[in-house]
Amino acid sequence: MSKAYRVGILGATGAVGNELLELLESRNFPLADLKLLASERSVGKNLPFKGENIAIEAVNENSFKNIDILLASAGSSTSKAWAHKAVDAGAVVIDNSSAFRMNPEVPLIVPEVNPDAAANHKGIIANPNCTTILMAVAIYPLHKIKKIQRIVAATYQSASGAGAKAMAEVQAQASAILAGKKPPTEVFPYPLAFNLFPHNTPLNDMGYCEEEMKMVNETQKIFGTQNIRITATCVRVPVLRAHSEAINLEFAEPFSANEAREILKKAPGVKVVEDWQANYFPMPIDATGRDEVLVGRIRQDISHACGLELWLCGDQIRKGAALNAIQIAELLVEKNIVKPANALVSR
Amino acid sequence: MSKAYRVGILGATGAVGNELLELLESRNFPLADLKLLASERSVGKNLPFKGENIAIEAVNENSFKNIDILLASAGSSTSKAWAHKAVDAGAVVIDNSSAFRMNPEVPLIVPEVNPDAAANHKGIIANPNCTTILMAVAIYPLHKIKKIQRIVAATYQSASGAGAKAMAEVQAQASAILAGKKPPTEVFPYPLAFNLFPHNTPLNDMGYCEEEMKMVNETQKIFGTQNIRITATCVRVPVLRAHSEAINLEFAEPFSANEAREILKKAPGVKVVEDWQANYFPMPIDATGRDEVLVGRIRQDISHACGLELWLCGDQIRKGAALNAIQIAELLVEKNIVKPANALVSR
Fold first, then answer.
1. ipTM surpasses 0.90
2. Measured at the alpha carbon of residue B113, what is the angle toward residues B329 and B17, in degrees to the nearest 5?
3. CA B212 → CA B50, B130, B199, B302, distances in Å?
4. Is residue A270 within 8 Å of A292, Cβ to Cβ?
5. Is B174 at the interface with chain A, CB within 8 A?
6. Do B233 and A302 touch (CB under 8 A)?
7. One domain, residues B193 and B336
8. A48 and A68 housed in the same domain
9. pLDDT per position as a tens digit, A201-226
10. Which residues does the UniProt record annotate as the domain Semialdehyde dehydrogenase NAD-binding (chains A, B) (predicted)?
11. What DSSP character marks residue A275?
C-alpha cells in the first residue's frame, strides 16, 4: 500500500517555487494532488508539471481544505497571512520564509542535522535561511565528533538570494556596464555586476544585518545549543545562484584536517571537492543545480591550535531553499508525521 | 633649492605601471628625468606623461646608470633578474613584486605603518602584496592602541590582481556568458565572470595558498611582530579593480567599536564609510580610483569579548600597489634617504 499526499505550493511562480515543482517531479514525491497557489496577479498562468499544465489559483480562505502539506515560499508577509489558516484547515506547513523560524513552537529543520525535531511540530515547520542551511550541512558532521566553540564566517552570496528578478537584474547590469551605460538598480540598492556590497538587510544595534543574525540564531537553534558563539559578515557578490562561504571553526580540542576530511567525505549532503594539485575547489558554477553542499580547502587553522578552516559552495535555491523543504516533506512522509490523503490511498 | 630625482619604471606598460605614471604626474613627484623600461616586446611604444610622449626602452645592463629611484613592477622573475644590477648602478629599487619581500635585508614598507624601516635599506625596498597593504592600513591604527592577537580574514579580490589582461578577460567572459557562449579562460584557470574561486596561487603543505601566506608573513614583518596570529581565505571575485576584505580581529582586552571608529576616522590613508541608516558601506566601485582604504561595518564581534569585525575596500592597483610604491619614493625624498640627482639640482 503506497501512501500519497495532497501538496500545495504557495508562491509557485518564484525562483524557489519553480525549483520546488522541479524537485517534486524529479524526486517523484508521492503526490495525490498538486495545487499551485499564488496572488491574484498570477492567476491565469499555468506551470508545467509531469507533462501537464497546472493552473495557478488565487490563494484564499478555502484554498487549504484539501492540502496535506503546504510548501510556502512567497515571503514572510504572505506566510504570516496564510500559514495559520492552512494549519487550521489541516495542512502541515513547511515555510520557507523567516516568519516563524525563531518561534520556539516551530521546529527549524535541516534534515541532515535535526530530523527528529520535525515530530514536535504544531502545524508549521520552518525551513532555515539559505546561508544557514549550507553551513549547517557542512559543519554539523564535525560538531557531532568534537563540539564547535566558535564560528567566524564570511559569505559570498549570489543574486538568487533576492529572487528571480535579482538574477535578471545582475545580468542586465552587466550588459549595461559592458555597453558603457548606467546599470539599472531596481531590486538591489547598488549595482551588483562587477561590484559587491555587504548584505543589504536591516542592521541591528550591534551593527549586524538580519542575514548575519539568521546565521547566528538559526544555527544555534538547529544545533540545539547556545554554546556555539558565531559571528558572520554577509556579502552579496555578482554570482547568479550559488552561495559560497569561508568558515573558520574553533573547537575545544585539536581537530586534524585529515580527520575532518574523512568525516565530511562520508557526511550526508556533502561532497568534498579538493584537487590540491590542480588548485581546484568548490565554485558557484559547479554547485549550481547540484543537491550537495560542496566543501573544500579543509585545512588546519595556522592561527589557532584547535581551529579548522573550510570553504563551501551550495546552490542557494536548491539545498539553500527548495530541496531542504522537499527533504522536510519527505521526512514527514517517511516518519508518518503527516497522514496521507485517506481517500486517495492506493492499494 | 628644490631636489629632483631621476626615476625609472621597469614594467611601465602593465596595469600598475600605468598607474605609477599617472601618480608621478598627479602628485607632481620631483622628477629630474623619467625613463620607461620594459622588455624588447614593448620597444617602439610610447606612453604619455605630462603632455609628452615618452619612448619605452628595452631594459639592459646599461639602463640603470642614471637612475636614482627604480620603480619595478614587471613581476618577480624580472625583478630577480634586474634589481641587483640597478642597485649596483646606484639606484634605490622600490620593488612591487614578491621577489624580495621576505628577505630580512629588505625593508617591507607601508608608509602609514613602518616608514622608519626605509632607512635600513641596502638598495632594495619591497612594496607589500595588495591585500596585505589594504589590511595593514586599516588595522595598524588599532594595533597601535591595543595589540592585535589574532586575525581571521576573508578576501574578495578583483581581477586586477592578475593584471590588465585579467581585467579584460573578466569583461570578455561576461559578454560571452550573456550571449550564451563559452567564456574564454586564458589568464584565469576558470571562468571568473558570474563566478568566483579560491585564489589560484600555489598551495603549501598546510593547504594555504601563496596569497594567504603573504597576508600572514608580510603583515607580521610590516608590524614587526610574530605575535599576531593570522589566518586568511583569499578568493577571486568578478570585480574589476578594487579588493574587499572581511576582517575579524581579536585583542587581548575589549576594544569598543566606537573607540575603534574614532581612531580610524583620524587614521592616515583610511576613510570610514558608514551610513547605517542607508545600509551604505564600502564597495569596490566606490574604492576604485581612490587613494584611501575605505573601512566600514566596524562592530563589536558578538562571538568574542575582545573581538572587532570590520569590512574594507581598497583600490588594488592604487593603494594596493602603485600608490604605496610612490609613497615609499616620497618617503625616500622627504627623509633624504635617496640623494637627488646632483647635476640636476635646480636653484
1. yes
2. 35
3. 38, 11, 8, 25
4. yes
5. yes
6. no
7. no
8. yes
9. 999 999 999 999 999 999 999 999 99
10. 6-121
11. B
What's the CATH number where A21 sits?
A: 3.40.50.720
Find, in chain B, the residue whose alpha carbon is nearest to that of A227.
Answer: B303
A118-127: pLDDT as tens digits: 999 999 999 9
What cell was used for A109?
529543520
Which residues of B are marked as active site?
Answer: 130, 243
What b/e sequence results for B109-142 when a residue is b if at least 16 CB atoms lie within 10 Å of its CB, and e otherwise? bbbbbbbebbeebebbbbbbbbbbbbbbbbbbbb
Do residue A143 and residue A121 come from a single domain? no
B311 in contact with chain A, both atoms CB, cutoff 8 A: yes
Same domain, B102 and B153: no
The answer for residues whose C-beta is within 8 angstroms of residue A62's C-beta and 6 or more apart is none
Q: Do A208 and B307 touch (CB under 8 A)?
A: no
Task: Give the 3-state secondary structure of residue B146.
Answer: coil
The answer to whether B160 is a known ligand-binding residue is yes
Which of B151, B214, B233, B264 to probe the A interface (max A CBs under 10 A)?
B233
Return d(Cα B46, Cα B63) in angstroms, integer: 17
* Cα–Cα distance measured from residue A271 to residue A260, given in angstroms and rounded to the nearest whole number: 13
The boundaries of the domain holding residue B95 are: 5-127+322-344
For residues B172 and B295, membership in a common domain is answered with: yes
Q: Are residues A243 and A336 in the same domain?
A: no
Cross-chain CB nearest to B229 (options A209, A231, A303):
A303
Asked if A176 and A200 sit in the same domain, the reply is yes
Total of domains in chain A: 2
- pLDDT tens digits, residue range B129-150? 999 999 999 999 999 999 999 9
Single out the catalytic residue among A121, A199, A243, A313. Answer: A243
